[in-house]
Design goal:
By secondary structure, the protein is mainly α. The protein has one domain: Orthogonal Bundle (N-utilizing Substance Protein B Homolog, Chain A). It has 6 helices and no strands. Helix 1 packs across helix 3. The longest helix is centred in the C-terminal third of the chain and has 39 residues.
């Protein structure tokens, strides 16, 4: 896995945390970044993405709202919304990254999060079924 890919994943996790908590201090983000094994260059890339997305969030959301058809930004999941923000920020501000790479990475992040969500739901369902069976026996 490439350093920038790891950086995108870290940025996504940080942006999600900020959305959920209504903000995050530098210390909160430092703890978050330390909890994931990544090289310093991946962390620096993540910080650059996260800070850029936060700084230009209003403009990015306007671009997204204008591009969505028969859908609104509010209907997007927080993860999907932040994946699109990251990709749009890269496309608009990080000229050293080819557009095809940004688009491919957006799709990869989308797939990783979809697989993770599905796995979590399956584990919860199995655990709940196990709890129900043991309660029925008792």
């Amino acid at each position: 896995m490439g350093l920038r890919h790891l950086g995108r994943e870290l940025a996504l996790k940080a942006l999600y945390r900020i959305d959920i908590c209504g903000g995050a201090s530098s210390d909160d983000l430092a703890v978050l970044f330390e909890s994931f094994a990544a090289e310093e260059s991946a962390r620096k890339f993540a910080v650059a993405l996260m800070e850029g997305v936060r700084r230009e969030q209003v403009a990015l959301d306007k671009h997204l709202a204008d591009a969505l058809e028969h859908w609104s930004v509010k209907r997007l999941s927080r993860v999907d919304h932040n994946i699109m923000r990251i990709a749009l920020y890269e496309l608009l501000r990080m000229e050293d990254i080819p557009a095809r790479v940004t688009i491919d990475e957006r799709l990869n992040l989308q797939n990783v999060t979809a697989i993770s969500s599905r796995t979590i739901r399956q584990r919860r369902a199995r655990r709940n079924r196990g709890t129900t069976r043991s309660q029925a026996k008792g």
